User: Fold this.
Amino acid sequence: MLKSAPVADTALKATYSRAEVRRMLSLTERQLRQWERHDLIGSEQTFSLRDLIALRTLQKLQLDKISPTRIRLALAALRERLHEVADPLRELKVIADGRRIRVEVAGQHMEAVSGQLLFNFDNTELRRLLAFPGAREKGKSERNKREEAEHWFQSGLGFERSGAKKDAVQAYEKAVELDPHSAGAWVNLGTIYFHERQFARAESYYRRAIEADSTYALAHFNLGNLFDERGDYDRALEFYRNAVELNPKYGDAHYNLALLYQGGGQTMEAVRHWKLYLRLDPGSSWAAIARRELDKLRRSALVRTPASKRSSGNRALD
Assistant:
């Protein structure tokens, strides 16, 4: 049985508890506390929509293997240089560019390396840009758009939970209109059309999500599901593999890879991914299916292996 991504079940609210935030963003309490220790977030018990933007940014930087220490140094450098910006995580678009952290300022790009800023324009021009009222207003306008886009995204989740799919689609479309980099809204649009079996439209939205954020493992996973459903197993494998490369702890992707490899007769690869899945999710009902399939492969390997070879010390699948 193909394993799909979980359906979002969070309704729109003004604030969210730590437990809700952990569930929405697939974070652990340990991760939140690590960011608190590095002064990247406050020791909050509730979080606002603006806080969710900052947490999503931190989560993406973590997936790109940017350490909390490097993030903290970069943010400190940004605050020191950009006096108009009090909170870079909430006010600027902050992304990883290889080992660097890159931000956008007044439509320009700059990078922070070990807390030092490298500009594609000189400091005099930067000061002029930041001092120019139009640049400040543009920055505020962009921040307002991102916050409004997040509001519409959360509205879409609420509509989905209540079963109002048409309203959900309109909310997600408004989110991507305001912020074309809202990969989550693109993915959720794709998933709505996937469930309606409008595969071409779903594929286009999933690909827009990857254009917005190429490191978004869920978008790759959902494209894998789409091609799996179409019977295009080679392309399904490609996108499932992308998902686990981006997030090696993506249990659902390991599960679906195991199924595809098993169906294609690639027994060793199937066994490897069943084992990886079971390490990540040992106690669910899906784990019972995984153990059953893994046991089938082990028994099959024993039947195919001649008795003389089994007794000579060759290992069967384990």
Observations:
- Residues 6-12, 112-123, 305-318 have pLDDT under 50 and may be disordered.
- The two ends are 23 Å apart (CA to CA).
- The first strand starts at residue 15 and ends at 17.
- The chain is about 65% helix and 10% strand.
